[in-house]
Amino acid sequence: YMHLRHRQRALYLAVNKNTDELHGERIYHDPDFCEMLLKRVGMAIFSPMPPAKMHEDPKLRAAYKCKFCNFLDICHGGTFARINCRTCVHSTPLKTGGWQCEKFNKNLTVESQKKGCTAHLFIPQLVPGKQVDVNGDEGWVEYYMPNGTVWRDGTADKYKISEVVK
Q: How far is CA 119 from CA 22, 63, 138, in A?
């Protein structure tokens, strides 16, 4: 908050939850640290791919954070992400805020992002299979699925996803 509001100092207050004792500190703005954090956040927001898995095996003791993650089933469980604009290869986050559909060259409202459209193609890293073929002219991507089947994203079969991952 300090950096974006151009404040040079602030008061940090912490409460000891056992005793309700207050601890206060006067902190000073560190512009270099703030810029580094903003760059890290920007890389996450504007990356064309989802973040990498923290661990390949969520059952390892070191992977305890995976157990608390809302995306465990998508990352490790073979579950598809939801069909919406934010899981589509055609959507791009805008530096000014919001999202744009590159296929139809239009800004997306929150409602349209949630709804998605029939031109939706999953970001390949969100599909629980291995990408094996793509046809940009026809608008499909083919995946080899863990159950041995081949699934083509970009066809009417998309809405039968539950049959693909059995």
A: 54, 36, 11
Asked whether the beta carbons of 14 and 22 are under 8 A apart, the reply is: yes
Q: Output the tens digit of pLDDT for each of the chain's 166 residues.
A: 899 999 999 999 999 999 999 999 999 999 999 999 999 998 888 887 888 888 888 888 888 888 899 988 888 888 899 999 999 999 999 988 889 999 999 999 999 999 888 889 999 999 999 999 999 888 899 999 999 999 999 875 555 554 555 4
Show the beta-strand stretches assigned E in the chain: 9-15, 22-28, 91-93, 99-101, 106-108, 130-135, 140-144, 150-153
Note whether 93 and 22 are same-domain residues.
no
Residues 156 and 88 in one domain: yes
Domain around 92:
78-164
DSSP 87-125: GBTTEEE-TTSSEEETTTTEEE-HHHHHH--TT--B-GG
- Return the biggest CA–CA distance within the chain: 65
Residues in the chain: 166
Same domain, 107 and 151: yes
Q: Are 31 and 82 within one domain?
A: no
How many domains does the chain divide into? 2
